[in-house]
Amino acid sequence: MPFVSQRPKLKLTEEERAWLQRLSRSRSEAAGRVQRAKILLRYHSGDTVSAIAAALRTNRPRVERSIAKALELGVRSALQDLPGRGRRPTLSPEARAWVVALACQKPQELGYAQELWTTRLLAKHVRKQGVAAGHPSLQRLARGTVSKILRANAVQPHKIRYYLEQRDPVFENKMKQVLHVYKQVEIWHKVGAPSELTAVLSFDEKPRIQALENTAPDLPPVPGEHAAVGRDHEYIRHGTLSLLAGIDLWNGEVLGLVRDPTAVRSSSNSCAGRTPITRRRPAFAWFSTITRRIFPERRGPFWPPYRIVSSSSSRPPMVRG
User: Buried (b) or exposed (e) across 273-291, using 16+ Cβ within 10 A?
Assistant: First the structure.
């Protein structure tokens, strides 16, 4: 007499069957979920456990577990791993949080000479102080585990990223006044500029640039031998120079002037030896040296933006409010 299974049949709705079919043909889902979907579809169609195991090249216990979960918990729950599977974690959440808290401190605060943590140094400190801190599970902590803990919490104590501290309490107001100038230029491009406007210039200074001279001519690249330009490592120093650079916000023209640092203060010419700078024409005083107040560390005389209001007058046409 043939064997008759006493296991109940798996009933699927049209929606569940269509979902399992899509999942069984998926190329992006996990292989385990795809295999379980195929098991449930074959069992629903009437295949035996042995036939399913042979067709999918797996074993009977796995097929039986998948079918039992579907009958007990439902189709969608049967495709998920039950909680509690796998090796239980040896590090408690408190121990991991303590490691992260250490990484957020500087090594110098804990008596080390290093400025920044390395995974080796942090793991060594954790193994040494873990028991005293109440975390005996950290006695054998490895560097790789430290890296995983820090990566999971998006902490990189070995890196430095610079920021600009806000020290001026009225910075927002000053910034708005400067940005108003650039916005005004954008509006002028759309509706037309005033007839007295010639240019809107923004200057900056790069001081103390080394002036170096090569002692030997550069060697050109040679295919198959030298891929880059060759340059002798010795050079002749000619002191330092300051680069005064500006851009005309009206037409995009870039102006440049190279001067000796000692002559920058006394220089009264604008970039490229053009229009001299003066403090006349106070009618445009609203375009003031706000930029110098926002960036007090910039000492160059050409840093604040300037507006040229006229170039036909015999007097110097550039105005600095």
Answer: eebebeeebeebeebbebb
pLDDT for position 205: 85
Q: For residues 71 and 64, what is the distance between their CA atoms, to the nearest angstrom?
A: 11
Residues 143 and 148: their CA atoms lie apart, in Å, by 9
Cα separation, 69 vs 191, in Å, equals: 72
Collapsed DSSP state (helix, strand, coil) of residue 125: helix
Kindly compute the dihedral angle of the four CA atoms of residues 251, 282, 302, 191, in this order, to the nearest 10 degrees: -20
Of residues 166 and 108, more confidence is placed in 108
Q: Which two tokens stand for residue 67?
A: 């079918």
Contact 220, 213 (CB under 8 A): no
Which contacts (CB < 8 Å, 24+ apart) does range 271-275 have?
271/203, 271/244, 271/245, 271/246, 271/302, 275/308, 275/311, 275/316, 275/317, 275/318
Instruction: Please list, in sequence order, all residues whose beta carbon lies within 8 angstroms of the beta carbon of residue 114, skipping any fewer than 6 positions away.
Output: 107, 108, 121
198 has a pLDDT exceeding 80: no
Give the model confidence (pLDDT) of 216-245 as tens digits.
Answer: 999 999 999 999 999 999 999 988 999 888
Average pLDDT, the chain: 80
The tokens describing 115, both together, are: 């400025």
The DSSP 8-state label assigned to residue 184 in this structure reads H
235 phi and psi, to 5 degrees? -150, 165
Question: Is the pTM for the entire model greater than 0.85?
Answer: no
